[in-house]
Amino acid sequence: MTRDIAAARIMPSGADWSATAQRWRVPLLTVALAALPWIVPSQALAVNILIFGLYATGFNLLFGFAGMLSFGHAAFFGAGAYGAGIALARYGVGWFGAIAIGVAVAGVLALLIGALSIRSRGIYFSMVTLALAQLVYYVAFQATDWTGGENGLRGLTVSVIHIGPLALNFLDPVTKYYVILVFVVAALYAISRLLNAPFGAAMEAVRENESRAAAIGYDVKRIKLIAFTLSGLVCGLAGTLDALHLSIVPIDTLFYQTSGLAVMMVLLGGSGTFLGPFVGAAIFLLIEDVFSIWTPHWQLFVGIVFILAVLFLPRGVWGTLAAWHKRRSA
Amino acid sequence: MTGPVLVAEHIGKRFGGFTALDDVSVSFEAGQLTAIIGPNGAGKSTFFSLLSGAVAPTSGRIRFEGADVAGQPHHRFTRMGIARSYQITSLFPQLTAHENVRLACQAIHASARGGLWRDRAHYPGLAEEADSTLALVGLLARRGRPAASLAHGEQRALEIAVALASRPKLLLLDEPTAGMSPEETKEMMDLIARLASERTVLLVEHKMKMVMGLADRIVVLHQGKLLAAGTPDAIRTDADVRRVYLGEGRSGRG
Amino acid sequence: MTLDLIVAQLFTGVALGAVFVLLSTGLSVIFGMLGVVNFAHGAFYMTGAYAGVFVLALTGNFWIALVAVPVLIGVMGLGVERFLIRPLYGRGQDYPLLLTFGLGYVLIEVVRILFGTDGMPFETPPLLSGGLDIEGLGYFPAYRLFVIAMTAALMLGLWILLERTRYGLIIRGAARDPEILSVLGVDTRKVFLLVFGLGTGLAALAGLLAAPMRSVNPEMGVAVLIEAFVVTVIGGMGSLLGGAVAGMLVGIVVSMTALWMPEMSEISMFALMALVLLVRPHGLFGRGALAR
Per-residue pLDDT for A15 more than 90? Predict the structure, then answer.
């Protein structure tokens, strides 16, 4: 029997390429993102791909790996943004503390919304997350003293960032980009670890077959709640970075469309893949960037591209490429 | 004889107004292979789901190694040492055969189960354990293939391997030979005989001949109630069993 | 707080509830039969209101619009089912959902291109512009009475269709087990097609009926979609009775909250939903199996 195992081990398999890709995915993505401002048409576009790529990655953690289609992730993106923004604008907290507070607020909110919504499954779960996120939106809309209501939250400009003896000019777009990149890469590294760890495997088990996952000894509710909360934390971090980047928090950050944004980006790029969300974010934002120059109705094109992707490219652009490569090398 | 591993005490299950199982008491001795038989709709599947913890009974108690476990969540049953296979293959289709089994190994190790940081490949023993389980059911050469791409017989074998990987003291097999060719059925029977030599096994099966040759003990259910329990010989000659089950279609006009 | 104010607000709530009932019924029949959560439902509602604007501009007659709009948008729904949703059956529930989500995006943008991004006025039809004055109770606008009566009649008709006719038998059968129907020789594809058309037609009618009461703009469907989801979650997915009860409940709760705490009126329905979810995760009339 032992010899049998050894023989199977040395047999070449298609897993080689994907194992290598898995080991190098964070460094590769880091290099690509570091070069991004010099490739895409504008600095603003690069920052957006960075931030929304992270946001989509956080959403993908839940949808792509645990199989839970949330339509309420705007709540966590927004909670991060408002949490950091309120800490900065109303309480004079430093920039780093503000980020920590924003992420924490998003995490607590995700724990609450998660606990309520994982009681339902499938499409019911999608509707419940959407409705609860909308509740958060209306609460923020009414709590004008804290959030600025309809006008959004203002007055949180961070102009200089102090790291030890270093003082970085955060108003300089390039400096700002690389400061944000540090946070994004740190988050990506943590997510990559998580996906390779036993918990990542357990999430996939829940996605593939919930009742069997329970039958082999997994506490499915617990896995779902943890996955939901971690996903909320990542999206919260993306939100805090967006607040720092924009220096304001528009009320729309919390709206249904922001939730839909994550869904569209992940689907376009490839759900359940590590790089897909960034590819999807880049495609979406590029379409916006190019088409909004000559028509205010650029969303029409995004919608059509999305419909075509659902019909003909359900694995997304990156997912299709990866599957194609895997087939060829297998 | 070391005494019963699992004892069902007056267990019953109602779905709304329908009673699927009514006041069934059976005890299962350690080391034995018990087969559960009965005509369609006798309550075999319900009984099985209750014993495996997938569904909680509406009445009665289930004692596993002395403790009442009825109503505990499914994953607790598995961690205590009760694992099941499914009549309709229930795997993780997109994951490899190896990963299917490795997941089950991982789930019963508290230190590995929920790890958030360390790479899953670095947990000692899990991958080896998974591979040796695959070897046991003859699937090692297929370890890198996604479960969905395996042949039907191979999926049935993987189904058993996933249940085995939980290292159960009590293994519940739900019609393991469903949809198998005679050749595959023979192989599966040999495998079950081997498994039963090392642990307590409970088997739901339609194929009477197979059951009679294999089981130490047979439990017969009929219309949600316990009809008889005993050795294959005793069951063969039991008047009630002959009437409702074995004699079905033959005795009527006699 | 006088009695007639409370009665008036209660009445407004019932009229609002009627629109919710129509919306969630359309959502519910589509889900019940096809297993599809229609994220474009709000967009069909909005398109219904704009189709009303268009037909009214063409004919100047509200009653023609009342018939033409559900038919027009219903036919559009047939096309959507046939060419966009049908290819996705068998690929899991997420894909039709995502497709309708994208479709909602496109419909909003198309309407913006055709009718502009600003809102549009929608006059109450002259015949219904008056009201009923009941001494001691208050004043009841005729149009709202009409909306309530219309919804009640439609729900009754739908109930008869589903429970008392052969078609209803087929539809309910298709919801339970599509395979049995194909064995019996019923074309389930045709059933799915017609049911989707029916659902979108109902959404369009809801949009048209709501137009004189709420404002007409390209975004009107977004908030309504979420409201319809809330109603469906409260009532229980796939339950017609649940949708009707929850629709009324939400309408009344929202307008009564507006009376005492106007800033909380939008929040109240979500609070209600969270409460229901805590007590009954599958909704008031929902069956567990459907939530899967």
Answer: no
CA dihedral B174, B177, B178, B184 (to 10 degrees): 160
Q: Dihedral through CA C183, CA C189, CA C195, CA C201, nearest 10?
A: -160
Distance (Å, whole) CA A217 – CA B75: 4
pLDDT in tens, C221-251: 998 999 999 998 899 877 788 889 999 999 9
Q: Are the CB atoms for B3 and B30 separated by under 8 Å?
A: yes
**Contact assessment for residue B164 and residue B107, using Cβ atoms and an 8 Å cutoff:** no
Choice between B251 and C11, residue whose per-residue pLDDT is larger: C11
ipTM of the complex: 0.91
Q: Do B92 and A220 touch (CB under 8 A)?
A: no
The whole-number pLDDT of residue C292 equals 31
Could you tell me if residue A327 is inside a domain? Answer: no
Choose which CATH entry (3.40.1710, 1.10.3470, 1.10.287, 3.40.50) describes domain C3-291: 1.10.3470
How many other CB atoms are found less than 10 A from the CB of residue B132?
A: 17
Residue A147 falls within a domain, yes or no? yes
How high is the mean pLDDT of chain A? 91
Distance CA A12, CA B154 (A): 21
- The answer to whether A198 contacts B166, with C-beta atoms less than 8 Å apart, is no
Alpha-carbon distance of C215 to C195, in angstroms, equals 28
Q: Is the pLDDT of residue A17 over 60?
A: yes
Domain assignment present for residue A290? The answer is no
CA distances from C125 to C65, C128, C205, C209 (A): 11, 6, 15, 11
Chain B contact for A12 (CB, 8 A cutoff): no
- The model's pTM is 0.91
Residue whose entry in the numeric block shows the structure tokens 């599809």 = C36
* CA of A288 vs chain C CAs: smallest distance (Å): 14
Name the residue of chain A whose CA is nearest to C268's CA: A135
Q: What is the mean pLDDT of residues C71-85?
A: 96
| Cα B211 to Cα A42, A125, B201, B207, B219, distances in angstroms | 73, 44, 12, 6, 11
Cβ contact (<8 Å) for A198 and B123? Answer: yes
Q: What residues make up the domain containing A92?
A: 25-255
Chain A CA closest to residue C236: A124
Contacting A residues, span 193-212, partner chain B, CB-CB under 8 Å: 193-194, 196-202, 204-205, 208-209, 211-212
Q: Is residue A326 part of a domain?
A: no
Chain A partners within 8 Å of C93 (Cβ) = 122-123
Answer whether C267 sits within 8 Å of A132, measured CB to CB. Answer: no
User: Taking the alpha carbons of B186, B192, B198, B204 in that order, is the dihedral positive or negative?
Assistant: negative
Total structural domains within chain A: 1
